[in-house]
Amino acid sequence: MTAHDSRSVLPPDYDLQREYRELEGRDGQTYLQFATQMTTFYKQTYGEHSRFFLALRAGRLIGATCPRCKQVAVPAFTWHCPGCDFAEMQEIELPHKGVLAHTAPITIFPSSTFIGDAPFARGYVDVAVDAPIASFLPSRLRTTTGLVRPGIFVQGLELKLVFEDETVGCARDIFWVPMSEVPLHLRDQQPLRASELDFASPVPPAVTVAPPHVAAFGEALAALRGLAADVALSRRARTDLAGQTSRMGVRTGGGDFTLVVAEGQLQVTDGVAAEVDAIVVAEDPSVFTRWVHDGSLTDAAVEGSLWLPHKEAFQLLPILDRLPRSTRRDLRSS
Ligand SMILES: [Zn+2]
After folding, report:
1. 50 alpha carbon to ligand 1 midpoint, in Å?
2. Tens digits of per-residue pLDDT, 289-308?
3. Distance in angstroms (rounded) separating the CA atoms of residues 158 and 177
4. Is residue 5 part of a domain?
5. Domain boundary among 163, 196, 229
6. CA of 75 to the centre of ligand 1 (A)
């Protein structure tokens, strides 16, 4: 999936096509024009920002630097230094690496524009680390190690700049990944393209089999089988699962199982089945016991006690989270 898939949010007549094109200004300079469908139906240019986004489109990261005070503005939002009586600033080529300026928040419940993208992280990246004053570049942050979770994007983390394969001249043309996740031979490459990294098949974390987890595994399986039996008797739960099909292999520190969702039913089978849609990992199997007792798999994934390979696996969790409540409501009322 590219970052620029044009999701239709408006009836076709009102749905202005996304476009990015060059425009010659009255001053003879080149400006970048874009269309937006969110709040206005106007076409507009990036104005002075154009130079920055034209460079981005070409796989370059530039800033504006002041010859007097040496401050660096990135994105290059002005070409005249506000601190030096608006002295003309110069273009500076910035490195494709940086440092995370603060620990990044993770968005779980996004605004309607970004539904389907969550969870995602974004943060401010210090690119011009040697400059005496520099702005931080607000950017998307991605990891090749599965679903984004706490503990990855922490302050001070070294980052590598990555460009989407197709760049149009917008903020979503780029994102950053932890430098430690970039293979050595690609670390100095400029530009590094998204397709040169593997986001599709992250390696599941290893689990250590430990006696307390084995005991907890027995409890979790019993709780899950109880829930599966309740789902079969609950109209609400079957409605929750309507239209869903999923085979989720689950590895824990006490043993493995597969959670199957099909035809409005929940099934728990021993071991990880040969063909699964995703493998998820929970060192502590009681994550699942807590879920059955009105906990939340979504919370477990957000906190990091349940590891998921990608956001597609995440989409099923809010549906599964409804089941304990649905079964209790139905079975109590009957
Ligand atoms: Zn200055």
Report:
1. 21
2. 999 998 999 999 988 899 99
3. 9
4. no
5. 196
6. 16
